[in-house]
Amino acid sequence: MNAKQLSVFIENRQGRLGEVLEVLKKNDINIISLSLADTTEYGLLRLIVNNPQEGRAQLSEAGFSTMLTDVLVIKIAHKAGSLQELLKVLSDNGINIEYMYGLSVEGTSAYVVLKASDPPAADKILGKAGVTTLSASDIEKLN
What we know:
This protein is of the alpha+beta class. The protein is built from five helices and seven strands, in the order E-H-E-E-H-E-H-E-E-H-E-H. Strands 1, 2, 3, 4, 5, 6 and 7 form a seven-stranded antiparallel beta sheet that branches. Strand 5 and strand 6 form a beta hairpin.
């Protein structure tokens, strides 16, 4: 199951990240996970939120450049070697990982957000391997 990641391009200057977060806060958009990468001129903020479409609409209205991307949010065992085993399944089936970041840990499970070269194929391969992926409604429940 694909999930939607909200990406925001922001100038690399003091206070700009806070402005993004303020828009989300004012519109009751809850951040479940985030990743921030930067260059000298701009940053790329990747977010998993409870309502990505509304988050994008509100940020766009506030003047931010945004986009929604299909990603997989994958539940894995919270133990040594689990991530490597997951990545091996994808690699053995010709799926490349473009980027990934952690989401959260819940008891004996952990979650990772993964952008694959072919998200539908990756989701199908993982399903056949017995790996749980989260839908948008599953992610809202993590709220």
